[in-house]
Here is the input.
Amino acid sequence: MTAVADLTVATQGPRRKLGKGRVAAWLVLVIAALYFLIPIAASVEFSLRGVHDTHDLSTWENLFGQPGFLDNLITSLELAAGTVVITLVLMVPTTAWVHLRLPKLRRLIEAICVLPLVIPAVVLANGVLVAFRGGPNWLTGTPVILALEYVVLALPFTYRTLDAGLSSIPLTTLVEAGRNLGASWLTVLLRVVVPNLRTSILNASILSAAMVLGEFTIANLLLMNTLPVWTVQAGQQDGEVATAASMLILIVTWALLLLMSVFGQRGARRTGRSG
Amino acid sequence: MAELKFRNRRRLDLLGLLPFLAYVAVFLGVPTISVVVGAFQDDAGGWTLSNIGAAAGDPYLHAFVVSTEISALTAVVGAIVGLAIAFAVSASPPGGVLRQVVSTASGVLAYFAGVPLAFAFIAAIGSQGLVTKWLGAVGLDISGFSLFGFAGITLVYLYFQIPLMVLVIFPALEGLRPQWQEAASNLGASRWQYWRLVGGPLLLPPFLGALMLLFANAFAAYATAAALTNGIIPLVPIQIAAVMSGNVAVGQENLGNALGLGMILIVGLALAGYAWMQRRTSRWLR
Here is the structure.
């Protein structure tokens, strides 16, 4: 009896107090929502401004015709693709190998992959400038160096994502099964490991592509032209154009996320049917 | 025989790490070592401490002070507000829409830094901004508020600090089991006593850790401040960029390296503190 009585007190006590707590909680959330939504709404409004307090689509219509815009957009998209490809070719075999053959070194590899967080992007850019000063032009004179460094910048996120994916599948069993059936290492990697890691690979790609599309620091300091660098330069003359371009960076990022997740689902459905 | 074969295999296994290690050594190791070594070299390549001395004197010391102030302020405010949001969400039913929205939004908004963020705030509270116009229409003039000064940078940095705090602290908050609170209240503890003696001490390490993570995050940030202020505000990363683009006296070419070394040390220390606190948290979390 007493136990039941205690229980009702325990459940009623907090609930009575929730009234005041609820109001405070909602107040916090509403203020936060305003703080986070207003700049985004203002960006949209700003990019739609026409002459004399009117609103139209003229900024957006003229955006693609702005000198340099399209070239830099393409450069940024190529950089994103390049970074994703290098990241996957380097990191998928490496993380799989560590899980299979060198599990004792997992902590060490993780520590190495987290190192880029300790080196601020400004310092990394400075180091690249100093270290590769006399380097060949195809490397340091072109955005190739950016893609190579973006792989490093994305390492903490890509490693963690792939590592988590590998931990959640019976990797050793799968690989041994493949090897016992006579498949080569490459076949096992491409036809056993990669399909099973589909979601992790997709997430790692999304994270690195999103990072590349918005990256300004290293590109700017190494005097490369990318979409964010162009946007800041454009902002010195025309705030509306720069705001529209920076909205576009966000939209492209989000569209990419959507596209990739659609592909991911389709891939999942296909293997689901055959399996 | 078997022993030898085993050792050979072990060596072959390590060989599989070679591409990764070589890549990191060239594209992270070499640049970092160049910065560290360059910090102690003069223009001719001889050893010197003059760069360190210059970096520790004005105007660069001032930059370290301003960077530290902004990072500490946005870390503390961001951590408190982030914690409040996390608390507010954790009161909602598990699996609800609110949780979904806040966690997705935090993930996206923590990414929303740099150039787009700077322009979003200019569009909102810049001299021609939407909010500036609204407030102007009701007779409130905020054109005196400079987005490009200390307060402005703080306001803008909070935009990515708060979501990061929510992302980092939410798992810890969720990890506090309701049974603990029930046990405490069954033993006659008030809510306040529970938080002072059980919840608070448990949340303190992850909170302090998050504080250090946020500090490092703000200290290392460059793009937002650069895009927002055009390099006016004297932060350490802005000063490094100025040195890199040649805005520096002759004979100080390695000054940027010395400033970079300072940044690595401060950010590294803060992140080491974060990692240490994380380890303490992982003892009871899950």
About this structure: Chain A is about 80% helix and 0% strand.
